[in-house]
Amino acid sequence: MRMWEGSGNQAVMMKIAVIGLGKAGLPLAGVIADSGLEVVGVDIDERKCEDINRGENPIPEERGLDELIKRHGGKDLIATTEYEDAKECEIFIIIVPLFTDENNIPDYRIIESAFRNVGRLLKRGDLVVLETSVPPRTTEERARKWMEEESGLKLGEFYLAHSPERIMTGFSISRLRGFPKIVGGVDRESGEKAFEIYKKFVPNLHLVSSARVAEFIKLMEGCYRDVNISLANELFKIANELGVDFYEARTYANHEYCHIHLPSTGVGGHCIPVYPWFLVKEMEKRDKFGYAKLLRTARQINDEMVNYWAEKIVLECMKINKPLNEVTICVRGISFREGVKELYNSRNLALAKLLSEKGLNIYVYDQFYSSEEVWEMGLRWIEPEDADLVFDSFRLTLERRNK
Ligand SMILES: NC(=O)c1ccc[n+]([C@@H]2O[C@H](COP(=O)([O-])OP(=O)(O)OC[C@H]3O[C@@H](n4cnc5c(N)ncnc54)[C@H](O)[C@@H]3O)[C@@H](O)[C@H]2O)c1
Question: Which helix (H) or strand (E) holds 304?
Answer without folding.
Answer: helix 293-317
